[in-house]
Amino acid sequence: MKPILFESPRLLFREWALSDASWLKELNDDPDVLKHTGDRPFLTIEEVEDFIDNYDQYKTHGFGRWA
User: Fold this and answer.
1) What's the predicted TM-score (pTM) here?
2) What's the pLDDT tens digit per position in 19-66?
């Protein structure tokens, strides 16, 4: 698991890790989620893992979507 970056009284925030791929795929298969994110569903777990490996929003912008 990636280190916790910050936390609230109820939540812990961290960058995504490859171990998050299965739940991220499941989350991104939900039409209600997609209508708010504008993303398209992942087709395979490998596609999710590639997305996680190449997710550069933390470095590029200093923030991104958190696990």
Assistant:
1) 0.78
2) 999 999 999 999 999 999 899 999 999 999 999 999 999 889 988 888
In sequence order, the 6+-apart residues with CB closer than 8 A to the CB of 43 are none
Beta-carbon contacts of residue 40 (< 8 Å; ≥ 6 apart): 34
8 Å CB contact between 37 and 45 = no
Q: 10 Å Cβ neighbour count for 7? A: 10
CA atoms within 13 A on the CB side of 48: 19
Phi and psi angles of residue 19, each rounded to the nearest 5 degrees, phi first? -65, -10
**Contact 38/31 with Cβ under 8 angstroms?**
no
